[in-house]
Amino acid sequence: MLLNNLRIALRTLRKNKTYTTINVLGLTVGIAAALLIFRIVKYELSFNKSFANADRIMRVVSMVKTTEEGEVPSMCTPVPAMDVMESTVSQFEAMSRIKEVWCTLTIPNPTGDVPLRKFNFASGQLAYFVEPEFFQIFSLEWLAGDPATAVNEPGSIVLTKSWAEKCFDNWSAATGQTVLIDNIIPLVVKGVVDDLPVNSDFPLTFFISYPTVRAHADYFFFDDENWGSCSSNNQVYALLKDKDQIVAANTLLAKVGEKEYSEGSNVQGRTHILQPLADLHYDTRFHHSGTHITEKSRLKILSVIGILILIMACFNFINLATAQASLRAREVGVRKTLGSRRGQLIGQFMSETAILVVFSTMLGCALATICTPLLKHVSHVPDSLPLFNSSLVWIFLAGTVVVVTLLAGLYPSLALAGFEPVKALKSNFNNTMIGGASLRKSLVVLQFVIAQGLIIGAIITILQLDYIRSQDLGFSKDLVYTFNFNSDSITIARQQALKLRMQQIPGVESVSFGSDQPLSGNTWSSNFKFADRPEDEPYGLNLKFCDADYANTYGIKLLAGKWYSPSDTMRECVVNMTLLRKLGITDPQEIVGQQIKVFENLKISITGVTDDFHTHSLRNEHEPLMLTTRKEFYWEAGLKIRPDNINSTLASIKSAYDEVLPEQVFSGTFLDERIAQFYEDDKRLSATCKAFGLLAVLISCLGLFGLATHAAAQRVKEIGIRKVLGASVTGILGLLSKDFLKLVLIALILASPLAWYLMNKWLTNFAYRVDIPWTVFVGTGVLAILVAFLTVSFQSLKAALANPVESLRSE
Which end of the chain has fewer surrounding CB within 10 Å, N or C? Predict the structure, then answer.
């Protein structure tokens, strides 16, 4: 019986080539899109699950209470608080202090000359200072060394396998070797661990013993006594004895530093809480270094898009199957008259659907494989990750075949098998007998609601990104080339030589050294007192450390006073207009010559006021800012270069760097490229909307094409009679097209408010945002109607141009 059903199904599908082709194309595109989206979502949801006891691993974070902003999330933990946690939180089975570090790694030359090898971190990579308990918390595969003793003492390091091979060609030869970080501090390799998986929020290259930080406290700005000093680089990870002890542990953590944190006026307190490892990849409140944070809401949106596109393909199948019902009515009537039961007919029609779905799934897998390299434009999934590398993928595909077969085939099968033989064999049988017209119209509207909603979303994200690119940042980012260097005493002694050497390059206009660029996302922060006011201001002051050439290099506008004089220490400063507004000062000249008191007792004279410039992405508003000098905090250079002979200039910059700092690793990039990285996730959202919006339009148009073909075929004699009676081609074209265009217009009316609400909600993430113009909705509507008209008019025009003699000829 099954084999017979399959033979009949194949014969029927071959007979209706247009119907089969449209359905296969629609299902293929839908299944390929769903498979690619499943791959993205599966990858994002797999983060950090490879660690044993992942459900018991926690990071200690905190909520900081401020006068002006209320509770502010923070991932840092003051070092003295770590000691208290270790002794008071009894729910911790193990706890490890960590300190993030970005440094160079060099293999020393026995002659003391230029290092044999030198390495810098790639984008997103970092290293940790850790305690032995870290390896108890995180289960890593050890290839060499003892996790209990490898990082017990100062001057020890554990390399990952890939970095051990970089340094010594063979990881097995690494143990016992000596390396240098920043070409200064010698470390002995005490172990090698396997590389961490790519779906981990720990893109670590090596682990340095935590005692090394204490031994070089000045170099690493390490302070184990100051409760008010808190760097996001200092964090705590812990392993709970039981996964259900989070509430009990939080109760004890809330008592840590109750007295110490209350001292100070701009910070009223800090409460430590636990952040489960399972939330680390998705919790946007707390930043973490190295990898991206993915909002679960975005994954939900992506999943919904994938499901909707697949459903749209099923809608096409349902529409075409019900539209073709009249063509198969006699077949059903004859079969029932000859004794076929309803169940047999349902099995026959479901067999046809199953064949189409299985064939489309195979084509969809092939299409998804071809399109896999394009995923990098809409996701963070590595290109190296195979598409069919998991049993979950095959389960997903099997489930898709079953669900799509039922979703696409069940209603048409029940409808066709339900025909009454007498009515089915009548010559005047029509689709209204199964209620197909209203269903088809509803499904077409739903298809275009989805398609137009995605297109509107894509246009709005493009407008916002264009707005960001065109926004005046308050400084010049064009043709500014940046690179890093160490901040150790040896490098500090060579800073002036490095700067002079860069200034001698013909293609370089200006050179500035500082802690970071104007828009970097990084700032130091301090409480402060202004002038003779007795109390600290109820908000923090951000600081950037930069030399006297900073304004000239980055084109920062000075509104009052002058830029500060060259200095190695913090003597003079320049502040921004946001600080003046918060202080209640309207005239910039009033503040020139006044003093700001930071770091408890350090008084700094204000020499000038700058216009506001963006220090963070446009998601954030301007903050009070002070720029001042401090030579030991200079580790980044910005060079304004001329537009001619750029490649030659860049080569000269690297050559000069290697000449002055031969032991360090040069890594340069343009400032505008670094700024663009702030909006990578938004670009991916835009690309997602564009890509899947176009797919939605394609699937919708395939369905319209099929319905238009059927409609034209059903009205052949009507069209012939109209032409004989004098109807024009244009009139017939309008007659056949208007019903479909009405559906597209209804879809626009439904999609516009929904898309406006969702995109307006997304735009609230930006402090500086574009207003959604009404032309977006009108333009999308015009585009949708035009595409729909072109799709429908192909068949309509063909029918309108047909010879009426042929269409009216009797069978």
Answer: C
What residue type is assigned to position 147 of the chain?
P
User: Is 31 buried (19+), middle (13-18) or exposed (0-12) by CB count in 10 A?
Assistant: buried
Query: Given this model, what pLDDT does residue 640 score?
Result: 95
Q: Is 158 exposed, middle or buried (0-12, 13-18, 19+ CB in 10 A)?
A: buried
The tokens for 498 are 């490095």
Q: What is the DSSP letter of 170?
A: S
β-strands 541-545, 57-66 pairing: unpaired
In angstroms, the CA 81 to CA 92 distance is 15
For residue 109, what are the contacts with CB-CB under 8 A and spacing of at least 6? 115, 116
Quote the CA–CA distance of 309 and 305 in Å, as a whole number: 6
Structure tokens at 142: 């050890």
Has residue 423 got a pLDDT over 70? no
Helix axes 729-763, 680-714, angle to 10 degrees: 160
Question: How is 370-390 classified by DSSP, letter by letter?
Answer: HHGGGGGGT----TTS-TT-S
Bridge partner list, 625: 542
Closest CA to 765 of 519, 542, 464, 472: 464
Distance CA 203, CA 100 (A): 11
**Residue whose entry in the numeric block shows the structure tokens 């600080």:** 579
Within 8 A by CB and 6+ apart from 676, the residues are none
| DSSP one-letter code for 55 | G
- Please state the rounded mean pLDDT for residues 491-509: 93
Q: At residue 87, what is the residue type?
A: S
> Which of 427, 321, 411 lies closest to 12 in space, CA to CA?
321
What would the two tokens of residue 777 be?
């909705």
Q: In the Cβ-directed half-sphere of 572, how many Cα atoms lie within 13 Å? A: 15
Q: Would you give the DSSP letter of residue 222?
A: -
The pLDDT of residue 482 is 94
Residue spans of alpha helices (H) in 226-341: 246-253, 258-261, 296-323, 325-337
For residue 248, the model assigns a pLDDT of 94
Structure tokens at 553: 């290099």
User: Cα-atom radius of gyration of the chain, to the nearest Å?
Assistant: 34
Q: What are the backbone angles phi and psi of residue 433, rounded to the nearest 5°?
A: -65, -20
HEC letters along 698-754: HHHHHHHHHHHHHHHHHCHHHHHHHHHCCCCHHHHHHHHHHHHHHHHHHHHHHHHHH
* Identity of residue 157: I
Neighbour tally for 453: CB within 10 Å:
26
**Two tokens, residue 161:** 């396998």
- Helix or strand or coil: residue 322? helix
Other beta carbons within 10 angstroms of residue 24's beta carbon come to: 21
Q: What is the DSSP string of 448-506?
A: HHHHHHHHHHHHHHHHHHHHHHHS--SS--TTEEEEE---SHHHHHHHHHHHHHHHTST
Instruction: Tell me what percent of the residues of the chain surpass a pLDDT of 70.
Output: 83
